Amino acid sequence: MAAEPVIEVENLTKYYGNFPAISDVSFTVDKGEILGFLGPNGAGKSTTMKILTGYMPPTEGVVRIAGYDVVSQSLEARKRMGYLPETVPLYTDMTVRGYLGFMGSIRGMSRDSIRRRTGDVVDICRLGDYTDTLIGKLSKGFRQRVGIAQAILHEPDILILDEPTIGIDPIQVVETRQLIKDLGTEHTVVISTHILPEVSAICQRVVIIHEGEIVAMDSPENLAERLQASAQVVVDVRGPKEKVTAALQGIDGVQGVTVTPLERGAATYTVTSGRDQDIREEVARQVVQQGWGLLRQESLSMSLEEIFLRLTTEEPSS
Amino acid sequence: MTALRQVGGYILIGLYAIQGGRNTATIAWKELRTYFASPGAYIVAAVFLAVTGVLFVNSISGTFAEASVRGFLEPTALFVVPVLAPILSMRLLAEEQKLGTMELLLTSPVRDYQVVIGKFIASYIILILTISLTFFFVFLLVWKGDPDMGPILSGYLGFVLYTGAALSVGILASSLSSNQIVAAIVGFGIILILILLGQASELVTGLFSTILEEASVLEHFNDFSRGVIDTWHLVYYLTTIATFLFLTVRSLESRRWR
Lengths: 318, 258
Ligand SMILES: Nc1ncnc2c1ncn2[C@@H]1O[C@H](COP(=O)(O)OP(=O)(O)OP(=O)(O)O)[C@@H](O)[C@H]1O
Ligand SMILES: [Mg+2]
Description:
The complex is a heterodimer of chains A (318) and B (258).
Chain A: E1 5-16, E2 19-30, E3 34-38, H1 45-52, E4 60-65, E5 68-69, H2 74-79, E6 81-84, H3 96-106, H4 111-124, H5 140-152, E7 158-162, H6 170-186, E8 188-193, H7 196-202, E9 205-210, E10 213-218, H8 220-228, E11 230-238, H9 241-249, E12 254-261, E13 266-274, H10 280-289, E14 293-300, H11 304-313
Parallel strand pairs in A: 3-8, 3-9, 6-7, 7-8
Antiparallel strand pairs in A: 1-2, 1-4, 4-5, 9-10, 11-13, 11-14, 12-13
Helix pairs in contact in A: 3-4, 4-5
Chain B: H1 2-37, H2 39-60, H3 70-99, H4 101-106, H5 112-132, H6 135-144, H7 149-176, H8 180-200, H9 206-215, H10 219-226, H11 231-257
Helix pairs in contact in B: 1-5, 2-3, 3-5, 3-7, 3-8, 5-7, 5-11, 7-8, 7-10, 7-11, 8-9
The complex binds adenosine-5'-triphosphate and magnesium ion.
């Protein structure tokens, strides 16, 4: 598959004043790909998307959409994009139909195509009963749907959706994900989310971002595998903490040990190792040999959720 | 070959202009619809008519009353327009910022200046419609008296230009805040300063006084209401409007660079 990248992001850095919201972010998205942008609150997802759509210029770096630079050839880039910002922006005093008409019109659609596509997106987003309702009177979930409808109205090549399923009921979430998946066959989609099942459900590739830096970029499957690559063994041991830690760290293949104290001189030790090494026996042997009390031993295989936590909340190892 | 290229270039520019005009018109049309759909514009128009009515009656009931519009247009320009223009324009950009729709607008294939001009045109139309309510008083003058039509026409021309300048200040103020009330107060403040420059000119002498007088938005209106149409005043108002609209575009841009 020789897919050409339609979104190229090179060394993107954005400072708000002195605060670096994102630093040195680079990735590409191929045609027809669905890329998930995953990160906790404040990671820099929305900032990246605002730069991708040309709303904000980056402090440093380049973004090309279909070959057009979003800063210097902004209009050409914008024509090819549909965007759903995270604060679903709607004119509350307009009807759904009026709003879609206005959005179509400022994107240069003809009257006929606006009429046709309004019908289409109203069906797709299940807004049928609300086309003539004032947006201000819609519930949050329906507003979100109008936001999605607006983003796909002009059949853009590239869709940028900032947390598209927030506030939608579970059934609609499933449908929206399916919709994004369907769109992903012809369009290129970038979605941001902090919901893990969402990326594993719809994305071909995940970018995990934390404190403005990309910490991982892979397919959801590979990511899960890679994370399992570091297996963890949890042991509760009664004994002198420093010595136990040192002993555990001394085991061949161990990458790290974290300690959580328990009562009466005991502590929980989480021992991380490479996946290909099974350290369970060696951990038990070490503890018993030294005459410490082995209270519990357990081996963890991490879910994607835990991987995510690990990737993004772990402190820089010294 | 070069000629062909040139023609091609002109066609391209023409197409851009049409598309640009279309975008501006789309935005103006949307704003007009919003004005007509909201009760605010009607209330403003009604209050305006009432206040100018009082000023009109006042202007024709004095001892030296004359059958002209000058008597009520001048106090309207001084006391009513500094409030009216910011109120009509305060929503235009402030609300886009508050609703977040600015983000969509500015990521659509629309230029910032098209947004600003579109909104200015819509609010100017509403403003002119509001002003035209006072034609009723002109009608009364013509019916009951024998006014000189020249100063009336030139007075209205000057009045419309003057309110346009005030409106462009209002739009700039609206781009500075996401709060409409703040926008209105800031707009009122700037217009007031621009008017007071004329008053301040009387406190100083020489070149400085002339500069202050020329800079004042209201001074240029006085000639119009006396029946004089001077190109310099026309140029002044059109430049002022263009300047404030330009500043508004820059203000929108600066928001992106933060
Ligand atoms: N306009 C702004 N001015 C200053 N700082 C900002 C601004 N917008 C965002 N930030 C900061 O930049 C960082 C990244 O914010 P961003 O909105 O991109 O995060 P996010 O990943 O989208 O988070 P969330 O999941 O909460 O939406 C945050 O620390 C935020 O406080
Ligand atoms: Mg966000």
